[in-house]
Every structure is written in structure tokens, then in C-alpha cells.
Design a protein that fits this description.
Elements lengths: L1 E5 L9 E6 L12 E7 L5 E16 L6 H6 L6 E14 L11 E4 L2 H7 L8 E6 L5 E5 L11 E4 L7 H14 L11 E6 L17 H9 L10 E5 L19 E3 L2 E2 H6 L17 H15 L1 E2 L5 E3 L2 E3 L2 H13 L4 H5 L5 H18 L3 E2 L16 E5 L5 H22 L6 E5 L2 H4 L7 H16 L1 E7 L7 H5 L3 E4 L4 H4 L9 H7 L6 E5 L7 E4 L9 H4 L28
Parallel strand pairs: 9-20, 9-21, 10-18, 10-19, 11-12, 11-18, 13-17, 19-20
Antiparallel strand pairs: 1-2, 1-6, 2-5, 3-4, 3-6, 4-5, 7-8, 14-15, 15-16, 21-22, 22-23
Helix pairs in contact: 6-9, 7-9, 10-12
Amino acid sequence: MAVGRVLGTEDATPLDFWVGIDPKAGQYLQLDDVVVCDRDLPDGRTLRISGVVGQVRARHEGARFDGDVFLVSDGLLPADTMEAAQVQATRFEPEVFVPPHPGTAVRRATGVERDEALFFDGMRHRLPIGLSRAGEPVYANLEFLDGTRGAHVNISGISGVATKTTYATFLLHSLFHSGVLGGEAHNTKALIFNVKGEDLLFLDHDNRQLDPIERARYEALGLSGGAFKSVELWAPPRRGAHTAVPDTGARLDGVGAFFWTLDEFCRDELLPFLFADAADDRQQYTMIVHHLTAKLRREAVSLGDGGVRVEGRSARTFRDFIDILSDLLESDDTATDWAGRAIGSGTINAFIRRLHGAGKHLEHLIRGDLPNPDRHHIAREQQITVVDIHGLHDRAKRFVVGVVLRSTFEDKERSGQARPLVFVVLDELNKYAPREGYSPIKEVLLDIAERGRSLGVILVGAQQTASEVERRVIANSALRVVGRLDTAEAGREEYGFLPPVLRQRATIAKPGTMIVSQPELPVPLVCEFPFPAWATRPSEAGVQVTDTVVGQPDDPFEDLAGADNELPF
């Protein structure tokens, strides 16, 4: 049944055209509706033109002035109300790029026609990424995510309302539970850095607040509405504790404490990650960092239980280790050997100040004073590995992210195989891969963005402002997702893939609404994703929280916040 006809009062082009909506038939079109129309070609073939509604307008026909609206309403001026929808063309079948003729009947696309209009019919492996406004599934082509034809996801949006982390977690749920990965799903892994709150520490608990309506939305997507079944959780050890007790508040059971030994720090060349904040290449102390890193790898002697001996002095705590390095760098007898040639005292002092500054934030993460250190390595043995870093200082966060990312990437390089895939979820990407400056984390993320596709390491990155992230990281992302955007941010060139109307809509998007751009579709699609089926806070998991837990909201509206301190919806 036709919803309207192609207007003759507006230009119809192969890229877009306007559809007049038949008011007598009680029809309407709304934003994001998919429509289709036909045109007979001179050679006897029938051309099918499909598109997505990008704008809808309504106005009086027969009125000329603004005040005429009151005359029309009072019945004093004859006028008809007319609605029209602008359609952005998505597909021509066959590929003959001509406009539809004015007067051509336009119908709402459903079933096969909708799949063809949105290129879903050509996706051999369809990944559910949300629901349309009409409640129909929206898909992405897995081949642009698993490295076959592209890789990586980038998500932008305002913190607190854009639901970036929640949507990234939903994508993982869809990957692991939709069947799109087939037999590979069992071995595919995901690494999630929990950068805000403790909400991601309950992924293995069903959400007790998931109502039947939201459960039905999961069923519409072909997904099970439940928690992740294979999860391991890691958190930093509590500062000042003589045992490796995980520093968490809302959850203690099933959480492991991670740290690195002094032996590993020297052997694996981890010193540069202490200085992982973006630096100016002209800063001279970076020369000491590289020289000292190589020196420690060659000359630090392992004590066999995590500690090290440097120049005959033993260290089992990071503070002792820093004191030994400071003495070696400040002594006239050893400074040249340990700092490098032609390094001035001012540069050495600058390095020592930074080293001590980092030490007070990382002394519980780098140590040689606890037994069985092998039990405190982030294992990544389960399907989902959550590394909680939300309570760490920024320097410590950068150290953990950089070291874990490098280890993950090097493990994949050594395997020499792209399968099984490893998905890395990292929020605050602008902090770890900023547009300006150099840092070892930024180099690792660039490596993942540019070579991760061939190695099976897929980055799901998120940030508030894509304009502050290294361009090559964004450019290598096949799927680009936008939630609620700040008005000024929406106007930047990084969002040039969004038509003007969608840029405007992004500034008013509600939590749970995402705009997704993917390579096969010429226009981005707006979709909604269901309320999380996994717990995002202790109350949803049925966990009792003691009064000693820090950061539990008193405001009932604040209690709606989900992962990343964002509203799940």
C-alpha cells in the first residue's frame, strides 16, 4: 500500500527526493522509516529505488503569511495541511542512477524489500546491533568487524548520557550470543578496561530488573536476555595491605588482584609505561628512559621470587627500587653508565622527580614482596576479562592499560594467527591516544588500529570527543557509533560522516539511542538497544552492599546510572 507519491514541486535526484504523504489515506512517515518506489526504464527493466527518511515536514498549502495559521484554524482561510518526507537514497537495483519520476507511488519497505534497502540481504554474517524505531532488527556486517574486510569500532558521546560503555558491552553480548561467530564464539575473547565505577564487575549476574518488555526486545534480535557466562574479574591490590586483597568495594568474591613483580618490570621493559602521559619529543629525560630500560633488562638480577638485585643492592618494594635507581643516577661514579652519555644534571633531576612522582601511585602494582606472584597475572582465560582500574591515579591507569595492551598484542603476534579474535574495549580513548604528543600507549593503540585487523585484535574504543583522538585510530574504525553529542563537538569535521540532520539529532539523542555508520550503507542508521540483561550495579545483581562501600549514590535518579556512570537507558 502506497504511503504517498514523489513530489513534483521539489527536485528529485538520484541522491534524495521528497515524498508527499497522502492525508486522506491516514498515512504518515517518520524519521528513519525505510521506503521504496519503482521506475520503468526504457529497456523494459524495472528500477527499484530504496531509501531512508531523513527529514519530515508539515505545512499549510494556501497560506502565505505566518499569521495565516490563525485564519486557517478559525476556518476563515481555506488551506490544506500537507506532510512531506525527504528520502535519502540507499540502493538502486539494478544500478541505474536516475531519479524517480514525480507522481511515482512510494511504499513503506518491509520484509525482503527492507533487507535489500539496507543491504542486509548481502550480509552473510549479520550481527544484531539494535532495533529500529519500529522495533525491527538492525544489523552490521560482521566482515567489517572481524577483520575480513575491516575492523574496529569507535563510539563517541557525552559522558553520563551517551551510554558508550553500555553499548560496547551490548555489542559483545550480541557477538557471543547471536550465533554470528558460529563455532568460533567459544574461543573468542574480550578484554574490558573498567575505567569508571564498579558497574562492570557484575557482568556475570543476571539483571533482576529486566522486565518482560525488554526481554521481548532481546528475543526480537535473536538474543538471550541474560548475563555473560564466562567472566574473570581483576582489580588492583589494596594499598598498604600485606596480602594481595583486591581493592574493590561492591564485590569481593570472584575477583583476583593483579600486580607485576620487579623482576618482570626490568625483564619486560615496562619502565616507559611509567611515563605514558603524552610527552613532547623534545623533552630530554626520555633519552634516560630508553637507556635505563635497556640497562635494567641486561643487568638487573632476579632474586627468584619477584625481587631484583641492582649493582649488588636488593629491592623487594618499588620504593626501594626507585631509591636504588636515584642513587645510581645521582652518583658521579655511576651517572654516565646508568643515565647515558652527555646527559646533564638538570635532565637527570627531572627524570628522578618524575620517577618518584610515579612511584607513590604505583608501589602497590609493582612489587617483589608477596608470595606466588604468578597467581596475580591477568590470565585472560575466560571469554570476558574485566580489568578494573577506576580507583587508580591517572598515571597508574596508563601504566596498566599500556602494559596489558602490549602484552595482549604481543601474544597475538607470537601466535601468528588471527583466530581466535580478541576484542579490546577501552573508554577514554582521548586520554590514551591523544591527537598531539607521543606516548608508548599511543603507539600500541596505533599498532592495534593499523595492524590489529590482520592479527585478530579488534579495538572497541570510546571517547567523549573524537576530535581529541589520534586521527589514524578513528580512521581505521569500520563501524562508527555516535550517542548524545555536545553541540560544539557535533559540528567538528570528525563527524562529517553524519548528514546535517543526524548531527542535529545527535545533540538530543536519548540514552540508549545510537547512530551507526558502516561501510556498506551510504547513510548512517539510528537504532536503539535493549536495557542491559546483565547487572550493572549491586542492586540489579541482588548483592548486599555494606555501609563501607564508597560511591553509592544517594540521589534516586543517580541510581539509574549504569556502566561508565552512564544511564543504561
